[in-house]
Amino acid sequence: MALPIHYSNDEKELIRHFIQRGDVPGHLYKYRTIDRVKQLLESHSIYFSSCEQLNDPFESAINLLTDYTPKQYYDSFIFAGFSSQLAKELTRQVFDGTIDGDAIIKELTKGVISSVGYFCMTSSPDNLLMWAHYADSHRGVCLKFEILKDLDSFLVPVKVDYNSQYINFDCLSSNLLDVLRRKSPDWEYEDEYRVIKTDHQGLWKIKQDCLVEIIFGCRTSKEDKESIKSLASTSGFTNITYFEAREKQDSYGLDICEI
Q1: 107-144 pLDDT, tens per residue?
Q2: % helix / strand / coil in the chain, to the nearest 5?
Q3: Which string of b and e fits 72-90 if b means at least 16 CB within 10 Å?
Q4: Cβ-Cβ contacts under 8 Å for 75 (sequence gap 6 or more)
Q5: Which terminus has fewer CB within 10 Å in the chain: N or C?
Q6: Rounded to an integer, what is the distance from CA 52 to the centroid of its chain?
Q7: CA within 13 Å, CB half, 240
Q8: Would you say 240 and 232 are in contact if contact means Cβ atoms under 8 Å apart?
Q9: Are 145 and 151 within 8 A, CB to CB?
Q10: Whole-model pTM?
């Protein structure tokens, strides 16, 4: 079930090629409240959330396949890090009816998923619902990150797969990434990309020049705009261009204008 954690220089160069060719997004956006942006600027960090911290209770839901043979149970226990002796004993107890093998496999799989960290972004800075839901009803900001300026932080942005069905998951042969990128079609408006780290949750230091734009919402106060600009400057974020979202006059939508 393992996912890549660290990437070699050759792999980074290959991903760089994919980004330059347009196969992987070169930049992505993050909608935030004013307080969250201040935290990012002060700490020079983004935050990788656990599955339980995300706002969808169905996150990483699976239809777990556990109709295993004795060898498959044994292999599953070995894969989970148990000793050969303990794996043999657990397998024997499963088929003796002493313990519930399916329940053990489910807990092991849940444990792997719960250790993953997610940083979620999107492809567009003018999504009305994203502004409303994640940027304090247009009073917050939208951040633009350049992926190539910090590959260690943003490898690899994976597009979410919107599908109404759970993944049929076999912990011995299925790809865990398929689970981590599956969401209900109800969320499709977000057009989400997520960076997934199997070895980290919580704050993650970023290179300051990867934050290239701050877009203020159409309701962001003048005081908050000045506060964010000042904090960005004093925190060493000197590569930022500032924009603001303005309501279109003849249709539902936003114009993103440099200020």
Answers
A1: 888 888 888 999 999 999 999 999 999 999 999 999 99
A2: 40, 25, 35
A3: bbbbbbeebebeeeebbeb
A4: 172
A5: C
A6: 13
A7: 25
A8: yes
A9: no
A10: 0.87
**Exposed (0-12), middle (13-18) or buried (19+): which is 101, by Cβ within 10 Å?**
buried
Per-residue pLDDT, averaged over 48-76, amounts to 90
Q: What is the CA radius of gyration of the chain?
A: 22
Sign of the torsion formed by the C-alpha atoms of 12, 181, 68 and 81? positive
Task: State the pLDDT confidence band at 64, using cuts at 50, 70 and 90.
Answer: confident
Q: Is the peptide bond before 24 cis (omega within 30 degrees of 0)?
A: no
Residue length, the chain? 259
- Positive or negative, the Cα torsion across 63, 179, 128, 44? positive
Residue found under tokens 């917050």: 140
* Dist CA 62 CA 102 (whole Å): 14
Strand extents, DSSP E, the chain = 27-32, 45-48, 62-64, 117-122, 141-146, 158-159, 161-162, 167-169, 182-183, 192-197, 202-205, 211-216, 241-247, 254-258
- Report how far residue 229's alpha carbon sits from residue 160's, in angstroms, rounded to the nearest whole number: 32
3-state secondary structure of 142: strand
